[in-house]
Each structure stands twice: as C-alpha cells, then as structure tokens.
Design brief:
- This protein has 620 residues and is α+β, with helices and mostly antiparallel strands.
- α13 packs antiparallel against α14, α13 runs antiparallel to α17 and α14 runs antiparallel to α15.
Length: 620
C-alpha cells in the first residue's frame, strides 16, 4: 500500500492516467489464457412461459406442464414470467469430481433459483436488481454456486426469471468449477478492456464539460448553459453509466436502471430547451418555437408515462414509449434542420444544424446496429460543435455588451459635455458683460470675436466623436486666448509641437485635453497670489504613444487653498476624460493612461502640477 499526496489538478490527471494504464496492462497480461480458463460445459435447459405470472414452484414440480427447449428468443414477452428447468441428467458423474460448481446464466432483470438443501426446497434471488451481483465484472454475472445434492429430484435446478428489456442472451446454460469462475469475475480480455475504455473517456470528458458549463451558468446566469450542462450530464449517464465503476449502482437497482433508460428522453428534453434559448426561437423563429413547446410538453408526458408503466410492470408498454419518442425526435430533427437552413438568420444556426445532424446519424446507427459507439461518437462530435457554438455566443454576448456599454458611456459623455459647455458659455458672456460695463469696447469686441469662433467650432464638431490633433490644438488656442482676455492676461501660455508629430493625421477624442487645461487655470494659476503664472502644453511623439503634457506653476493640488483637497469638488470634466480614454482602449490592455505629477519647490511647498496623457498609437 502506498499513498500519494496530490497538489494540483495536473498531478491528479497524471496519476489517474498512470493508474489506468498500468491497471489495464496487468489485467490484459493476466488474461492471455482466459479462453482456456473460462471453458464451461453446456447443460440442456427448457422453458415454460407464465403469461399470467401466477405459477409457483409447487405447481411446476407437479409435472403438469410441458417445457420446451430454451432458445435465445424464448423470453420475448417482457410482461410474462418464465420458468426454466436445467437438466443435469448427463452430468451427474462429473458433478461428483468436485464439491462446489458454479452455474452461469444470462443477466436476468429479476430471477430466483430453486434448489434443495437437506431435503428442503430453498430459493435464492440472483437477478440484476437483487443486489447479489456487486462483485461481478462489467460483462458477466457472478453465477450461482451449487453442489450435486442441491439438485431437485437428483437432476434439476429451476429458475424463475423475468426481463424488463429486450436483450441477447448468453444461452444455453453452462457450468464450471467454482475456482475457475474467477476468470469471469476478476479478469478481462483485451477485447473487453477495449469496450470499457471508450466509456470511461467519454464519461470523463462529459463530466468536465458538465462542471464547466455549470460554473459558466452560475457566473453569467444564462439558462441555456444550465440546460446544456444537463444535456451533457444525461448523455454521459445514458451512454456510459453501465461501464463506469462509480455508477455501477445505477444498473443494480430498479430505480437506477429506470434513470438510465429515461435519460434518453431527458437528453432530448434538455436539448430542445437549450436550442430554444440558444437560437432565441421566440423572437427569430416563431413557428419553430411553437413546435418546440409542443414537443417539450409531449416529452414531459412521455417521462411520466414511462415511469408509470415501468414501475407498474408494463415493460412492453415502456419499451413502446421509448420507441415512440425516438420516432418523434427523428421527425422533429429532420423538420427543424430543414426549417433552420431555410430560415437561418445568423451563424448560430450552423452549430445547431451541424451538431444535430451528426448526432442523429449516430443515434440511428445505434438503433439499427445495437452498437452504442455509433451514438457515442456522434454525441462526442455534437457536444464539441455545441461547445464551440456556446463559446461563440459568449463572444457575441460580450461584444454586444461592450458595444452597449460604449454607447451608454458616449451618451453619458455627450450629456455631461453639454452640461460643461453652458458653464463655459456663461462665464464667457459674463466676462464680455464685465468688459462692456467697464467701457472696454476693444477688449469686449476682441473677446466676442474669439468667443464666437470657438463656439462655432465646438458646435460644428459636437456631432463628432473624434478630431484631428490639429483641430484640437486650434480649439485649445482659442480657449486659452479667451481665458487670457477674461483674466486680464494675468497668465502666460505656450504650445509646443514635436516636429515628428503629424498633427493632421493623428486623431484623438474631441475636446479630450480642454478639461485638464481648464483645471490648471481655474484650480492652479488663478489662485496664485505671487509670481508669474505660466501654463505650457507640449505634444510629443514617443514611439508607440502620443504624449500630451499640461504643466503649470500654480498652487498645486495639495495647497491648503486649492479646491482639489476635497474629493467631492474634483472636476467633472476630468472624470469624463478618463472614461473616454478607457473606451479608446479596445483590447482592455490599459495602454492609455493619465498621470498627475505634483511639483514641489526647494522648501517642499506645492509649486504646480504636471499632467501627462499617453494615447496609444494604433499603428504600433
């Protein structure tokens, strides 16, 4: 015995894979001679059909009924019980050579063996749902141990059996030594291992997808992801549960086996509910939406009917229900694929039609050949296609959400910019009024002319989201000239443009820089009482970024008198500008930025502010 402490999912996968590989290799090597070790001897068997299910062992032992030779098609009535007489007349001498033998039978849903012990008639249940097959292999039941003295009338064993579903029997009845029986229950041939591995891999892949889409559903709250995860879950149960050790209990109880059977209806139910939401049929395909709703109701009724017939013992009827839903879904699949190809409104239809077609081919292959690997293969490809479709829809949803957010943000910016412009207009008109009242007609006319020019430029460009850097600089010049007149030329300004910067081709968001210039003037320079007041604007080209620097020698953000010391009074315009820069960054890589540098003099006193705006060059 050894223990392994695993620290990551990667380690879990590695050790699980290693365990499976070495486990299979050991069993296949040990099973090379199983053909000889599993050698059994045939025993003649005969059957009696008990259609009314009313005969007991006492009735059978009266020899009033005629038994017919047993064949693989004898138990074709699922609603009837069958009595089977196994005759050891020609094996009595062989039975004396060993004490305990093992009778090997078909896998019956419900079965009871009748035998003798000390001249007393005994019975023992050994069917699929009787709980006595827990130590059996995936392919063979345990068989029933017996001795020669257990034979009734010195030669017979009797079995009362019933099947809940049609299958191919491993008949006639055979027996072998109790010791040799372990080669059926403990070891596997290479062919048997090959039958198990696909189911394990399929179930593992489905489990991962199921958990993945459950997590997606819990995060984005889209119901189609819940329906899809349930579709994957029941696909795994229906197609692979019989060969998964941890799910063996499903085939050993009546309710568990019913769950496996009804999973094929649940697969179709959740597939329809998923498709309905995935394609938004209520909006885009109203006729298909009506038909889906009808089929969903029918499937729910079929699930209820199947449960009633199965647990009431009407096994033929429950089989008919399953066949009906197969036919119904085949017809619906053909209609819906044709309809969607004709009415397709987007690429989402391609995923549904392609996946459904491949799945239908696999399901029909399973129906006609009884080889579930056709359906498992079709389901695997379909799940892969549907997963791509869901991923694509997530991408579309994300892009739509991003576009909507940008539209909302642009509306919000437009509204706040409209709020900012009246504020500026009011201040400008106030300044013009002040000049007129002071009889300063020359300055008033100059101010009015510049104000008209700037207002016209703003109004003409108000419908635009972007402007060239040249247009933005001209607006800034007009704005600074107006503010210089307004404040009696109490400050100086300068604009420097890098020679390598092509201001006529570079585009930036309209009026991106003005709020920062306004803050430098109003909150930095105007409050300064001593010394010259300077503001400089620099436009630079730095490889993959355009850089705008706004620098002033005002009172700074951390002066006791500055309005910046109260967070509630920060410029609304600056907040809008930051949001506009974020919206420019399409890839969300934070390549656009605003840096605010607080300047200090030799006495560690605030001496102004420098703002650096970096705008990513989309061509780099």
């Amino acid at each position: 015995m050894f223990g392994v402490r695993l620290y990551s999912f990667k380690n879990i996968v590695f050790w699980t894979y290693t365990f499976i590989v070495f486990g299979i290799q050991f069993n296949t090597l040990s099973a090379q001679n199983l053909s000889a070790d599993r050698k059994t001897k045939e025993v003649p068997s005969y059957f009696l059909k008990d259609k009314a299910n009313e005969l007991g062992i006492e009735d059978i032992l009266k020899d009033e009924y005629t038994f017919a030779p047993f064949t693989n098609k004898s138990m074709d009535d699922l609603n009837a019980s069958y009595w089977i007489r196994i005759d050891f007349k020609d094996e009595l001498d062989t039975l004396t050579t060993q004490k305990i033998w093992r009778l090997r039978t078909a896998v019956f849903s419900e079965a009871t063996l009748y035998y003798m012990t000390e001249n007393t008639l005994k019975q023992k249940a050994f069917g699929q749902f009787d709980g006595n097959e827990k130590d059996s292999s995936f392919f063979y039941p345990n068989g029933f141990p017996f001795q020669k003295q257990n034979l009734i009338s010195g030669r017979y064993l009797y079995v009362k059996a019933q099947m809940h579903f049609k299958t191919t029997y491993t008949l006639p009845f055979r027996y072998l030594s109790n010791d040799s029986n372990r080669f059926y229950t403990t070891y596997y041939t290479v062919q048997e291992v090959k039958k198990i591995i696909p189911s394990i891999l399929y179930f593992g892949a489905c489990s991962i997808l199921f958990l993945t889409f459950i997590v997606v559903y819990l995060n984005i709250k889209k119901t189609e992801f819940l329906f899809y995860s349930l579709y994957v879950f029941f696909s795994a149960i229906y197609l692979s549960a019989a060969n998964i050790p941890s799910l063996r209990f499903l085939s050993e109880s009546k309710i568990g086996f019913w769950t496996v059977l009804v999973s094929q209806i649940l697969i179709n139910l959740f597939y329809l509910l998923f498709s309905k939401l995935y394609l938004n049929t209520s909006k885009h395909y109203p006729l298909l939406n009506i038909i889906i709703n009808i089929v969903v109701i029918i499937l729910v009724l079929l699930i209820l009917s199947h449960g009633f017939t199965y647990f009431s013992g009407f096994y033929i009827e429950q089989g008919s229900i399953l066949n009906f839903q197969r036919g119904l879904m085949t017809l619906f699949g053909l209609f819906s694929m044709t309809y969607l190809l004709y009415k397709a409104k987007d690429i989402l239809v391609t995923f549904i039609v392609a996946g459904s077609f491949i799945y239908m081919i696999g399901a029909l292959g399973y129906l006609f050949t009884f080889n579930k690997y056709y359906m498992m293969g079709g389901s695997t490809i379909e799940i892969f296609i549907f997963s791509l479709g869901l991923a694509y829809k997530i991408k579309l949803g994300y892009e739509d959400k991003l576009t909507l957010q940008k539209e909302i943000s642009m509306k919000e910016i437009s509204i706040k910019r409209a709020q900012m412009n009246p504020h500026f207009i009011f201040n400008s008109l106030n300044s013009i009024q002040h000049l007129i009242l002071n009889n300063n007609k020359v300055s008033a006319l100059s101010y009015l002319s510049k104000f008209g020019k700037l207002t016209r430029n703003i109004l003409e460009s108000s419908h635009m989201a972007t402007a060239t850097l040249k247009e933005e600089i001209n607006l800034l010049k007009s704005y600074l000239e107006l503010e210089a007149l307004r404040f009696d030329n109490s400050f100086n300004y300068s604009i420097t443009i890098d020679d390598e910067l092509d201001i006529e081709s570079v585009e930036i968001p309209l009026m991106l820089i003005q709020p920062f210039v306004e803050n430098s003037l109003i909150h930095g320079l105007i409050g300064k009482k001593v010394g010259k007041k300077n503001i400089s604007l620099r436009f630079l080209n730095n490889d993959d970024h355009y850089i705008v620097e706004i620098e002033d020698n005002g009172i700074g953000r951390h002066s006791k008198t500055t309005i910046f010391r109260n967070e509630e009074h920060k410029s609304r315009g600056m907040g809008i500008t930051k949001k506009r820069l974020e919206m420019l960054d399409i890839d969300n890589k934070n390549r656009n930025s605003i840096e605010i540098v607080d300047k200090y003099d030799s006495d560690n006193q605030p001496s102004g502010t420098k703002i650096i705006i970096r705008i990513h060059n989309p061509l780099k």
